[in-house]
Amino acid sequence: MEKFKTLHTDLEEDILTITLNKPEKANPLTTQTINELRTIIQTVYDDSNIKSAIITGAGEESFSVGADLHELQELHEINGRKFSENGQETFALIENCHKPILAAINGYALGGGFELALACHLRIASEEAVFGFPQVIQGIIPGFGGTQRLTYLLGKTRALELVLTGDTFSAIEAKEMGLINHVVSYKEAVIKKSREILNKIMANAPLAVGALINCINAAYNPEVDGYQTEANAFANCCKSEDLTEGIEAFIQKRTPRFQGL
Question: Do 168 and 49 have their domain in common?
Fold first, then answer.
């Protein structure tokens, strides 16, 4: 697998762990990091040996604190728009991937780091995790799709309060809002819980898993008929070998052996 300067990757038992690997700088999302993320996520799409992925941050203190402030100082209207669109496109690849991608959040997930977590399908956090969009305090706004995903998940009123105040909040508060799936005690437990959930998902039919991700995403896309998306996905599952295998395994009271066909 390709070597990266800002990421570390490790493939174990069909799960690719992608680690933002600049802990001395709190794992910032620089242009280079975004580009490397795009490359590795495309690999997740294309590599049949990868069934799912975890995105996490190196070190104990930060998942990611978002954009590098020195890089932000170099942005103007033209390259600023390109910087934002590049991040949005990369995070959309994560959100729309047919394989489950889970954020394992240790420490601070602020700004673009929080946006990255929101783009993942599921989110597991340690008790020490802290979330927020503090960009407004710095004179800028979320640029990687955070305003949209936060509003989808929380609604307009709650989302406006969080982005306009720049307030941060704990993992427990994030779970109470419905932004986090599970909160565990420490970083090692975050990875353990993440792998546990992904292994459970990977035991299911890959075509059905991908179809479910697509259908759920369609519910939040006003340009897509979610009901028709569901009907089309249901029809595709009906012609799959996985459906035959699933029914036979159920009747025979054995574990199904899905092939993604």
Answer: yes
Q: Which residues contact 11 (CB under 8 A, 6 or more apart)?
A: 1, 17, 49, 50
Distance of CA 55 to the CA centre of its chain: 7
Q: Encoding tokens for residue 105?
A: 């959040």
Identity of the amino acid at 227: Y
- CA distance linking residue 122 with residue 215, whole number of Å: 15
Range of the domain at 151: 7-202
Same domain, 120 and 99: yes
**Same domain for 132 and 79:** yes
The residue-averaged pLDDT of 181-191 equals 90
Distance CA 111, CA 58 (A): 17
pLDDT tens, residue by residue, 14-57: 999 999 999 999 999 999 999 999 999 999 999 999 999 999 99
